[in-house]
Amino acid sequence: MKKILYILVLLLFCNLTQAQKIAFPGGKTWLFRVQLKDKKGTKYSLRRPGKFLSERSLQRRERQGLKVDSTDLPLSQKYLDELKSAGFEVVGGSKWNNTALVKLTDSLHAGGLAAFPFVTGVKCVFHSPDSISRQRVFPLKSDTTAIIPGQLYGSAARQIEQLNGRRLHEAGFRGEGMLIGVIDGGYMNADIIPAFKRVMVESTRDFVYPYKSDIYQLLDHGTMVLSCMAVIDSFRYVGTAPGAHYVLLRSEYGPTESLSEEDSWAMAAEYADSLGVDVLNSSLGYAQFDDKSTNFRYAELDGRTTFISRAASMLAGKGMLLVCSAGNSGDEPWKKITPPGDAEDVLTVGAVDARGVNTNFSSLGPSQDGRVKPDVMALGGAARVFSGRGVNTTANGTSFASPICCGMVACLWQALPGKTAREIIELVRASGDRAGTPDNVFGYGIPDFWKAYQMGK
Questions:
Q1: What is the predicted pLDDT for the residue at 131?
Q2: Which pTM was predicted?
Q3: In this structure, are residues 158 and 379 in contact, taking their beta carbons and an 8 Å threshold?
Q4: How far is the C-alpha of 363 from the C-alpha of 350, rounded, in Å?
Q5: Backbone φ/ψ region at 454: left (φ over 0), alpha (ψ -120 to 50), beta
Q6: Beta strands in 194-329, from DSSP E residues, in sequence order
Q7: From CA 15, how far away is CA 196, in angstroms rounded?
Q8: Partners of residue 25 on adjacent β-strands
Q9: Burial of 65: CB neighbours in 10 Å, binned 0-12, 13-18, 19+
């Protein structure tokens, strides 16, 4: 009888599981990264950059003495039109890497892509599963977080105090005038959670094929990340850059893990650049995928080998500053930082707890070419966040250490507008409590943002 009951329960569980599965949108799909030879045939010119970059983006470059170059030019429309005329569907692409993202419904046709004279390489970056889990949007719950009399930052106080960021805020630098981009996997309910009502969102966009129009109906990881910087609910919770404006971008696809997320990330970063974003937060990292043959290797952690890290390493040269999570592999077999955390000229953030002790999950350095990684540390052990249900709770991960630090970076740059992205990075590193003896667990340590400001004045 016990065996029969077990079988009945197992069958019921299987039926419920099946009921939660849906077919992959659009049916069987392959995505191929197509490397283009050059940009001949583009209708754009470096003499008229205002045709493909916003005035804010151009002004950000000008302030830092940076010029627009060929990587900024959009992809050759001539080449894209030839691909389309041959029956191939172009669903995206990276201008910085000069690649097109092409969708196929039969992988046997991939050989036709390599036959074009302007194509120098073809790589499969995504193969859809037969089915995926249905995405559920959580209903909101009442937030019962108590007001803390006399404590403006409420439950988030430790997060900013650990970085000595309160003094920057008190000096009038709370992110005003700064545009922060967030690249994540979804921002569930961030448009209706009461604590987010004063968050200033400029725009949203999805870069995961098949594209969604409403990123507020997807994963809530981005909701938690955004809350660390943007929420302002006095005496309950205040983020590290409550005065900034935000651009919310989606590059992470929850149901699967594939190389195509590198392409989505690059497209999101390029879009952020075109809008004039100043500081970009990415609480995403990649090392291992559903197709094990595509897993990254330690030898590739040099900031220049993986597609995503090549794109990330270009950001400072465009005048943007990337703050990214180190990864949560410290207590896993991989252990190391995850791309794009190995990129050059970025701030890679590891996680400490409230006492300043490194968490066991925070990923380790160095990069393959010997650079100190992570760069700095922030609170990622029991960090205070808002979930997709609208509840002020705790969460673990370098995913939250990164935006806590990112918000303060935006405030610091607001205070020192004459600095370049690279100069701000160096100031943050130099203000760390281990700056004199950096290592591959803490990097340069926990930064002191008031000290960084004083050093940069």
A1: 78
A2: 0.94
A3: yes
A4: 7
A5: alpha
A6: 200-206, 232-233, 237-238, 245-250, 279-282, 321-325
A7: 38
A8: none
A9: exposed
Please give the distance of CA 394 from its chain centroid, rounded to a whole number: 20
Chain centroid to CA 333: how far? 23
Q: What is the DSSP string of 72-134?
A: GSPP-HHHHHHHHHTT-EEEEEETTTTEEEEEES-GGGHHHHTTSTTEEEEEEEEE--SEEEP
Pairing of β 99-104 and β 232-233: unpaired
DSSP state of 146: P
DSSP states along 321-335: EEEEE--S-TTSSS-
Q: CA-CA distances (angstroms) from residue 164 to 48, 71, 120, 222, 225? A: 43, 38, 50, 25, 20
Q: How far apart are CA 404 and CA 395, in angstroms?
A: 13
Using left for φ > 0, alpha for ψ between -120 and 50, and beta otherwise, residue 382 falls in left
How many whole angstroms separate alpha carbon 293 and alpha carbon 287? 11
| Average pLDDT of every residue of the chain | 94
Amino acid letter, residue 8: L
Span 287-308, pLDDT tens digits? 999 999 999 999 999 999 999 9
Domains of the chain: 30-129 (no CATH), 157-456 (3.40.50.200)
Residue 6 confidence class, pLDDT cut points 50, 70, 90: very low
For residues 206 and 213, give the distance between their C-alpha atoms in angstroms, rounded to a whole number: 7
CA–CA separation, 314 and 287 (whole Å): 20
Go through the chain and tell me how many residues it has: 457
CA distance 254 to 284: 12
Determine the Cα–Cα distance for residues 169 and 175; give it in Å rounded to an integer: 9
The pLDDT, as a whole number, for residue 135 is 77
Place of tokens 């929420």: 231
